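RECORD TYPE: inverse folding
INPUT: structure tokens
STRUCTURE:
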């Protein structure tokens, strides 16, 4: 796809859904693209980069930028340096002792197949490269459109909605297709995701097919809304 088309693709996907936050394109590459700045500074989590990209910035990170997030580093197959390696066990231990997870859940967490050299983040319409995964966030009524379009296009993953960790939605989408995540408490704090919002992660390879169906889904929902309102009025005693 021509990179210029991603602006139009973002419009076609976001407009029917009424998204308040821009979708975030995530790409894994061996080297940074020309003209894209490296992230500078520190963030407490890998999903913090989602927030920054949704606000309009385009940048790339390297594995060291993710060391503050032991869980996100795990899902992205980023090995922590020896002096920080115990942080993963400490984080998992805290979650287990609080009753948040069971240690036997860990092998079921989706992970990237290999450590990324460079991770590029951008608003979808501004992406400098073809995205591997695109992250959408919004209210359930909006996210419903995207999920239904993925089902109609035949690219929805046959998986339940994920909860924690939210960041595993990226490797899950890469390997399984479009997935939904209710978001975890850490992600909600680090990204500012609203209490009434959810995520959908879409493989970049499927964006065109979903965009081709979303107008049909939006129109169908409008027709069915009228139908169901009429039934409710007629059949409610």
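DESIGNED SEQUENCE:
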């Amino acid at each position: 796809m021509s990179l210029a088309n991603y602006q139009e693709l973002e419009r076609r996907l976001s407009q029917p859904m009424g998204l308040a936050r821009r979708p975030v394109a995530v790409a894994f590459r061996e080297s940074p693209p020309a003209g894209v700045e490296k992230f500078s500074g520190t963030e407490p989590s890998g999903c913090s980069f989602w927030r920054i990209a949704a606000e309009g910035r385009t940048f790339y990170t390297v594995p060291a930028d993710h060391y503050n997030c032991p869980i996100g580093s795990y899902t992205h197959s980023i090995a922590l340096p020896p002096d920080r390696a115990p942080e993963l066990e400490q984080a998992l231990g805290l979650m287990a002792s609080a009753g948040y997870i069971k240690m036997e859940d860990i092998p079921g967490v989706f992970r990237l197949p290999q450590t990324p050299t460079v991770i590029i983040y951008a608003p979808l319409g501004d992406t400098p490269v073809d995205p591997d995964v695109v992250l959408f966030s919004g209210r359930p009524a909006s996210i419903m459109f995207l999920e239904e379009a993925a089902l109609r296009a035949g690219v929805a993953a046959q998986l339940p909605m994920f909860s924690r960790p939210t960041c595993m939605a990226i490797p899950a989408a890469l390997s399984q297709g479009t997935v939904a995540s209710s978001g975890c408490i850490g992600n909600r704090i680090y990204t500012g995701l609203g209490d009434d919002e959810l995520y959908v992660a879409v493989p970049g390879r499927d964006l065109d097919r979903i965009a081709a169906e979303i107008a049909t889904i939006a129109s169908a929902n409008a027709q069915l809304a009228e139908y169901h309102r009429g039934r409710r009025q007629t059949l409610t005693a």
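NOTES: The chain has one domain: 5-235.
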